[in-house]
Structures are given as structure tokens and as C-alpha cells.
Amino acid sequence: MAPRNPATQTAYGPMVVAAAEHARPPGQRLYDDPLAVRMLPTAQRWIARSCRWDAVYRMLVAATDARAHGLWAGVLCRKRYATDQIRAALDAGIRQYVILGAGLDTSPYRLITPAGAHAWELDLPANIAVKRQRTRALPAGLVAGTTLVPIDFATDDLTGTLRAAGFAPAEPAMFVWEAVTQYLTEDAVLGTLAFLGTAAPGSRLIFTYLRADYLDGTSDYDAAPARRDFVDRQHIWRFGLDPAEITTLLRPYGWIVREHVGAQEYTSRYLAPTGRDLPVSGIERFVLAERQDATAGDSR
């Protein structure tokens, strides 16, 4: 049975978006995830597959964007960016991938294990139980290279837990922290950054964050209904950042920002080539960073 915790339930929404996009014609897709539909319960699978009909697809996009203008394309572009960066890390020879707050993400089974690398998927025990159930039907070769690790980022020892699961801290790794930080407390975010500060030189990190001015209500970004739901009522979006503070935040932990993207970059990079005319939400941004050698200076 799927978990009832509101925070764990949020894992399903992005996968519905991804699965619905896969039902569209290949040349129109912003993001292509053939495994997304297999992560969903039966009713949501039916909804996603029904998006091969334009009317159903448009209706689902409109319902999603009614909560936050541009949320549909924002989710797709975020996932596309993560896929692009994982592929780039694989091309660079990185063989260890740590998915922090994995949810129902399928990148280990689509990208990482087929390339012969290993993935550790970390999440709350309830989410890991669902993930274990959903991946049972996948080919054994895809699952064998992934280790599912239950953890509470607020209370558990991330370093010890990963080492016990076979992670080699002296080797470079890529850390994927997608759509997670907003659900954590500031202490949990800083604790995770302290762990990331021990990563081997040459490691890579990608993470998303919500804008602090959106969470505190200073700026609306045409997404007030989502803030009412997730901040005011459910109290599950708790942490945000100012884009101007990202470099300062990461530098003490040895990470150098290599790229910082959002709606504008997504539109030019992903929507324009496909001719898709969709708004992209501005409430969330994605950061790519690299772990520098302890003896190296800031290369910016």
C-alpha cells in the first residue's frame, strides 16, 4: 500500500507528469522516461497513458498549471536537466551515483546501471518500501546495480549509512538532490551539505531549491495555490534559498558552482528546439557544482 504521509505522496506527481509526457509523440517530448509509468499505481497509469489523446493531455497540463503557472513544463525540464547532467558525468567516467531523496525516480534503471555504474537510492523508509515494490518487475540486470537505502535525513548518520551500504567515499561520485531540499529543515539541509563536504575531489552535485521569496510570500510567481497547499496548509515546503546566496552557501563545503539554471535556460535549451509553447515556472532553480581539490583555489 502506498504511504499516506503527505510528503511521501508528493513522489507520485512528478512521475505522472513524466509518464504522461512519454505518451506523447517522440518528436514533441521534452523528457523521455519509458519506465515512469511502471512506478505508478493502476489509476495513475491509466491517466498517464490516456495522455496520448490531445484533449486529455491538455486537460492534465491545465489542471497542474492551475496550482502553479508553468509547473508542468518546470517538472519536465527539471528532470531533463538531471538526465543531461547524469549522462555528462557518466561520459566523464564517474561510476558512483547517490540519489538523495530518490522518490520514484528511474534514472538508476534508465541511465546509471545500463552504463555499468552503481547507484545508491536514499529516501525515507516508506518511500524505499514503495520503490522496492515498484522495481520488482524490472529486469534483474537493471536492479542489480542499485542499492536501496532507507534513511531519515533529519536524524540518521548519512556518512555511516552510505559506507555500510558499500559506497566508497574516496572515489569521485555524483550526488543528485532533486526536488528534496524544500521538504527539509534548515538543519537537515546543512547536515547534508556537511556530508557532501567530505566528497572526493572531482565529485559532482546537482540540486534543486525553491526560491525563498516565493516561500515567504514576497513574490507570487503565479503559484499562490501551490504555496497555500504545501506551505500554509500541509506545512511540507519548509526551506528555500535566494539565488544570490548559492555560491556563498556551497563554498565552505568545497563546492564550486558550474551552472545555475531556471525557467529562462529551460525555455531556450529544451522548449525552443521542440517548438513547444509552454510556460515554465520560476519558483524552482537547479544548480550544478563540482567538488574542488582541497589544495585548489576558487577557479571562478
TrEMBL record:
<comment type="similarity">
    <text>Belongs to the UPF0677 family.</text>
</comment>
<protein>
    <recommendedName>
        <fullName>S-adenosyl-L-methionine-dependent methyltransferase</fullName>
        <ecNumber>2.1.1.-</ecNumber>
    </recommendedName>
</protein>
<keyword id="KW-0949">S-adenosyl-L-methionine</keyword>
<dbReference type="GO" id="GO:0008168">
    <property type="term" value="F:methyltransferase activity"/>
</dbReference>
<keyword id="KW-0489">Methyltransferase</keyword>
<dbReference type="InterPro" id="IPR029063">
    <property type="entry name" value="SAM-dependent_MTases_sf"/>
</dbReference>
<dbReference type="Pfam" id="PF04072">
    <property type="entry name" value="LCM"/>
</dbReference>
<dbReference type="InterPro" id="IPR007213">
    <property type="entry name" value="Ppm1/Ppm2/Tcmp"/>
</dbReference>
<comment type="function">
    <text>Exhibits S-adenosyl-L-methionine-dependent methyltransferase activity.</text>
</comment>
<keyword id="KW-0808">Transferase</keyword>
<dbReference type="GO" id="GO:0032259">
    <property type="term" value="P:methylation"/>
</dbReference>
<dbReference type="InterPro" id="IPR011610">
    <property type="entry name" value="SAM_mthyl_Trfase_ML2640-like"/>
</dbReference>
